[in-house]
Design goal:
The protein has 172 residues and is an all-alpha fold. The protein has one domain. 82% of the residues lie in helices and 0% in strands.
């Protein structure tokens, strides 16, 4: 049953002999009606406040849910970034290993080429030395076979000193 302040004010009681004082009852009903009005107003204000607070709570719950979703998204993004970083690091390491292995193979091939050149140069040196030794040996043998014979020198008669004098005279 809903009672309003107006219902309280209009309420009438039947009169009986030796009943309550009418003015006192009316004064009480008026006080009761005013208190009832005040409580109704307070109830309305409290309901409005409750509604406002409920709206605010719903807003905060929505914000909380949004923030939690954002947090989950940020955590997932962070995990993805970490995983991508790990993958990229593994890729860089693998690429570096491949480059390193290529460089090592290239260096080994270069070392092999240099060693082959060294062997070739040693062979050329040894061949040159042996040819040179053979040439020196051949020249030594040739020089050893040479016989130096002095040709007989014909000694012409030298003009005697007398002959020199005569020839000097004739020239004079």
């Amino acid at each position: 049953m809903n009672i309003t302040p107006l219902d309280i004010r209009k309420q009438t009681f039947k009169r009986v002999f030796r009943g309550y004082d009418h003015e006192e009852v009316q004064a009480f009903l008026e006080v009761l009606a005013e208190e009832f009005e005040r409580l109704n107003r307070e109830t309305i204000v409290l309901r409005e406040k409750q509604s406002s607070l409920q709206t605010e709570v719903e807003h905060f719950r929505a914000m909380e849910q949004t923030l939690q979703e954002m947090l989950r998204t940020a955590q997932q993004a962070a995990e993805e970034v970490k995983e991508n970083g790990r993958k990229e690091a593994r890729l860089i390491v693998k690429e570096s290993e491949i480059r390193g292995n290529r460089a090592i193979e290239k260096a080994r091939a270069h070392v092999h080429t240099i060693r082959a050149e060294i062997v070739d140069l040693k062979n050329q040196r040894d061949m040159f030395v042996s040819k040179f030794q053979a040439l020196v040996q051949a020249q030594g043998d040739f020089l050893g076979q040479l016989q130096f014979t002095d040709p007989d020198v014909v000694q012409e008669a030298l003009p005697s000193s007398e002959g020199l004098e005569e020839s000097e005279d004739t020239q004079a």
